[in-house]
Design goal:
four-stranded mixed β-sheet, 42% helix, single chain
């Protein structure tokens, strides 16, 4: 860890506190983030760079920061969610279980940290077939959005190029609000997406003839099969990452271009232990 990285974490912390209606200024956020390496304020960060270099961002230092924020701002943040927001990936699988007692199928349940340091809950359900072909990829929210917007001729161009102030007016947004409100008792199903390298039809004939590498022949793009509105909700809530479902043939590409750091794609069969009936 270095000073510049701490500045980035201070910026993310400001976003957290704004979500909790406790806005703070730039200088104050720097003083608060000094708690991570166990220092009192930003001047001490600059005075003891070896302390900054030595600490690791883990649940223990997140607990220390959460404690300081509670003391200074009377805001009670869950350290695990705070850690997820700070590191940029607050998604983790927390259970494999049957959602309904009468259903023998297993579901993998995911905990998704939001910028407010609360959690949303999502799931992927095993079925009687294609569990090996269905893959879960944890995506970085901003990289995912960027590649959705990259498809300038896609079916959902207007939606992709919206923002939180427009997404909340989607005609199904209230259904997403109600769905996520059920929490861990009934997690929301993952969005189903595709990912492919779309040919650039505007590539000039001269570029093709000359083999001009500066004008790429394809653009990596995201497309939705299902789940746009629930993705709007996650983006509006500032989730730094979230899980999506895609086909095995597209999982490696999706993970390469949009995946959260350090999280490998996994098939539904691997996650739930439920293979296809034909296996």
């Amino acid at each position: 860890m270095n000073v510049e990285q701490l500045k980035l974490l201070a910026q993310r912390l400001r976003g957290v506190l704004e979500r909790r209606n406790q806005p703070i200024g730039h200088s104050q956020s720097l003083d608060e983030i000094a708690a991570l390496p166990g220092l009192r304020n930003w001047p001490e960060v600059l005075a003891f760079p070896h302390r900054v270099a030595a600490f690791e961002l883990d649940i223990l230092v997140a607990e220390r920061l959460a404690s300081r924020l509670k003391e200074h701002h009377a805001v009670d943040l869950m350290p695990r969610a705070l850690l997820g927001v700070l590191v940029g990936n607050g998604t983790r699988q927390i259970a494999v279980q049957s959602i309904n007692p009468w259903d023998t199928r297993k579901s993998a349940v995911y905990e998704v940290a939001l910028e407010s340091c609360e959690f949303a809950y999502m799931r992927v359900d095993a079925s009687t077939c294609r569990n090996n072909e269905r893959v879960v990829v944890v995506v970085d929210a901003q990289r995912f959005l960027s590649h959705w917007r990259a498809d300038r001729n896609g079916h959902h161009v207007a939606e992709a190029n919206g923002n939180p102030s427009t997404w909340i007016h989607d005609y199904k947004f209230e259904f997403a609000v109600d769905g996520f409100a059920l929490g861990a008792a009934n997690p929301v199903p993952l969005a189903q997406v595709g990912f492919w390298l779309k040919p650039n039809v505007r590539r000039s004939k001269m570029s093709n003839l000359m083999g001009d590498a500066s004008e790429p022949s394809t653009t990596p793009v995201v497309a939705f099969t299902d789940g746009i509105t629930r993705t709007f909700w996650l983006l509006v809530q500032g989730a730094p990452s979230f899980p999506v479902e895609c086909s095995r043939s597209e999982a490696e590409l999706l993970s390469h271009w949009c995946g959260a750091s350090g999280v490998a794609p996994q098939s539904v069969a691997e996650i739930t232990g439920m293979t296809d009936d034909s296996d």
